[in-house]
Write a structure and sequence with these properties.
- The chain has about 210 residues and is α/β, with parallel strands linked by helices.
- Helix content is about 35%, strand content about 15%.
- It is built from six helices and seven strands, in the order ββαβααβαβαββα.
- Strands 1, 2, 3, 4, 5, 6 and 7 form a seven-stranded mixed β-sheet that branches.
- Strand 5, helix 5 and strand 6 form a beta-alpha-beta unit.
- Helix 1 packs parallel to helix 3.
- The N terminus is likely disordered.
Length: about 210
């Protein structure tokens, strides 16, 4: 583990040597990458993003259910919000305690018992994190990216993945931005310029 960057199975803290057991990584040609879905949304224009974020979360849960049924691994890549002393579990607990829709978002998107988590210091999930190493260990060929925000961290993670040679699917209904215009622009850029699949997660032919 690097300071502030934690890759782990999401499990409750265990104060014993058993918690240090090496875990066998899953292998699959697909990985679902959830970007910044555990999010306090405490910036000035967050209220513009929040309704779309909740809609995207519900769509993502439906997609995730289908993917997990096919044994597709789920990886959370979440901003550490400058809290270099924290673990993913600390961030999750703090966001789940927030009032109203912010807490609801964190509770909806909480990791499952077999999901992988990492913290990122920058916008892209690949920048200064072990994600690339992780994907190579899992023999990943396609990265399915959902989360926040479509025109920032999702876009930068998707373009990095494309430049690294991965097929990328960014289901449009599983992302949100601060305005419909910004989201449409991001999806157009990803689809037309970077040749990402941007069909919705509900598309029967997109899996």
């Amino acid at each position: 583990m690097l300071q502030g960057i934690n890759v782990s199975w999401y499990l409750p803290a265990v104060s014993s040597a058993a918690s240090l057991r090496r875990t066998k990584l899953p292998r699959h040609h697909d990985v679902l990458l959830l970007v910044d879905v555990i999010n306090p949304l405490n910036f000035p224009t967050a209220d513009d993003l929040l309704p779309g974020a909740l809609r995207a979360a519900r769509a993502t849960l439906q997609l995730r259910k289908r993917l997990v049924a096919r044994k597709v691994p789920v990886v959370y890549a979440n901003d550490n919000y400058g809290t270099w002393h924290s673990e993913f579990s600390d961030l999750l607990a703090a966001c789940q305690e927030l009032p109203g829709p912010r807490g609801e978002l964190a509770r909806l998107m909480a990791p499952g018992p077999h999901d992988l988590t990492l913290l990122k210091p920058c916008h892209s999930a690949f920048q200064s994190t072990p994600l690339l190493h992780l994907l190579r260990q899992m023999h990943t060929r396609r990265v399915i990216i959902a989360g926040l925000a479509a025109d920032m961290c999702v876009m930068l993670s998707a373009t990095d993945a494309r430049m690294l040679g991965y097929d990328v699917w960014v289901p449009a209904d599983c992302t949100a931005a601060e305005s419909p215009t910004r989201k449409r622009s991001a999806m157009r850029q990803l689809g037309e310029v970077f040749q990402c699949d941007v069909r919705p997660g509900t598309s029967d032919s997109s899996e």
